[in-house]
Design goal:
transmembrane helix; elongated; 173 residues; 7 helices; mainly alpha; transmembrane
Length: 173
């Protein structure tokens, strides 16, 4: 199991890193919404290795069987690789590549809210955004948020993959 987790976890980490870098270079002129869609798509694509890792373990290391619990564990461990890679890459991005990202994004969100919300609702949302701005200015919080986002998606993919791929042994112990 360990070799499968490491191999497919590294595949997921490499994939999410490459997709992040591609989005960074090819998508810099896209809207924030389009970049967000690309980001979430990159997460899901890189986490497809969860399914393939569980399937590999079941078919090649465990005689064609895997319990739901074992599949879920394998999936979460594989997801952890991609989650950590994404958190680290995002940290590098906000600390070194684009240190003004938070301010730019904040400015964009304020302008968008100004044009779409009534005055009273704008004031409420602006206060909420101010509180979030403080939270997201911390590199540690940014790392945790990005990693946790990938891990949650990985958990969901692990659940689905575990349900699809589980196959219990017919022998009674």
């Amino acid at each position: 199991m360990k070799n499968t987790v490491i191999r497919y976890g590294i595949y997921g980490a490499i994939t999410i890193s490459i997709l992040f870098l591609l989005a960074l270079t090819l998508g810099k002129d896209l809207s924030y919404f389009a970049q967000e869609v690309i980001g979430y798509t990159s997460m899901v694509v890189s986490l497809l290795f969860v399914f393939f890792g569980i399937k590999h373990y079941r078919d090649h290391e465990n005689d064609g069987f895997v319990s739901f619990g074992k599949a879920l564990l394998i999936g979460i461990l594989i997801s952890l690789f991609a989650a950590l890679a994404f958190g680290i890459i995002d940290l590098i991005y906000i600390l070194y590549i684009n240190p003004d990202f938070a301010a730019e994004y904040y400015g964009h969100m304020v302008e968008q809210m100004k044009t779409t919300l009534p005055e009273e609702e704008f004031k409420i949302k602006l206060a909420e955004l101010e509180a979030e701005k403080e939270l997201f200015s911390s590199p540690v919080m940014n790392f945790l948020l990005m990693s946790f986002t990938v891990l949650i998606i990985g958990f969901i993919i692990s659940l689905i993959s575990g349900l699809i791929l589980q196959r219990k042994s017919t022998t009674n112990n």
